Amino acid sequence: MCFGTLQMGSLMAQIPPIRAAELLVFAFEKGITTFDTARPFHSRNLLADAFRNNPEVVVIDKSPARTYEEMERDVAESLVELDREEADIFLLYDVRSQEDFAMRQGAWNYLKEAKEMGLVKAIGLSTLSVEVAQLAAELLEADFVQVVFNIEGAGLLDGDRSEMEQAMSRLKEAGKTICAIKPLAGGMLSRDRWKEALEFVFQHPLVDCVCVGMTTHEEVEANCALADAEALSDDLFRHLTQMSRKLVILDWCNGCEACIPVCPTQALYMQSGFAKVVQDRCDWCGKCGPVCPEQAIFLIPAPKPREIEEAEVE
């Protein structure tokens, strides 16, 4: 299991750096050694605070760079921010189509050179697209591929779960390491199906690594248990199923309004060209996230002070 840090950073949960470092170290002590970040996540500093000079930690980093020069800068910035001489895994972030990959060939060329120079151990790409997953199988230099994969097939730009599984089979045949991202569809499956959804991905034969976003100790404990096919305690299961949540709309929302009509409680509305949420109306149903073409909507834990106190007592 890989610990995804997007949710804990400044874009979402905004966990204070000291608490974030403590949570990351707790996850490491539970056996998680791989952590995922990206330049847009603004979470590299949290990883640096927690794991400076820890050679056992593997960091997956990503860049949305489009040119050779942009990727060169982003790799250099990553090494400085994470205080490392060599990146473990560095990916071309969010490749959306074959045309998109072609337009970003310069960035990919630099990643290949960075690997040859010893600045990066392994390279690859992340994608929401079946088409791009199929393309990655043909890229000889690609070692590691992140694909959106969950029990509902939610969050894919094209195709469905079955078609992504076919693409993943091609990736495995080509010798690529496959990391499943969005196993809970950006939290949209977390209200009623989180256990079922995670068990599906953890047990899937085509998946080598599962990247799960976490913000609480209880999530770390539960996810580690599920990854190891262990039973959850009744208290932990009850705590996670009853935990308060909040809907987060990131600032890369493009104002398309696709989410507005699918909300059954009228919790979403438009303001100044962007989608907004009335938290008191949101019932965490998870219908809005899958229809967002920009993957800008997430459902994350938002434990209230009393829930935090109860968890600490337990």
Walk me through this protein's architecture.
The protein has 314 residues and is an alpha/beta fold. 36% of the residues lie in helices and 20% in strands. It contains 11 helices and 12 strands. The protein has helices at residues 17-29, 44-51, 68-81, 98-103, 105-117, 130-137, 161-173, 194-202, 217-227, 234-242, 305-313, and strands at residues 2-4, 34-36, 58-63, 87-95, 120-127, 144-148, 177-181, 209-213, 245-249, 268-271, 274-277, 297-301. The strands form 3 sheets. An 8-stranded parallel β-barrel has the order 1-2-3-4-5-6-7-8, surrounded by 5 helices. Strands 9-12 form a two-stranded antiparallel ribbon. Strand 7, helix 8 and strand 8 (209-213) form a beta-alpha-beta unit. The longest helix has 14 residues, at 68-81. Residues 306-314 have low confidence and may be disordered.
Q: What's the arrangement of secondary structure elements?
A:
Blueprint (H helix, E strand, L loop, with lengths): L1 E3 L12 H13 L4 E3 L7 H8 L6 E6 L4 H14 L5 E9 L2 H6 L1 H13 L2 E8 L2 H8 L6 E5 L12 H13 L3 E5 L12 H9 L6 E5 L3 H11 L6 H9 L2 E5 L18 E4 L2 E4 L19 E5 L3 H9 L1
Parallel strand pairs: 1-2, 1-8, 2-3, 3-4, 4-5, 5-6, 6-7, 7-8
Antiparallel strand pairs: 9-12, 10-11
Features:
20% strand; 12 strands; eight-stranded parallel barrel; alpha/beta; disordered C terminus; 314 residues; two-stranded antiparallel sheet
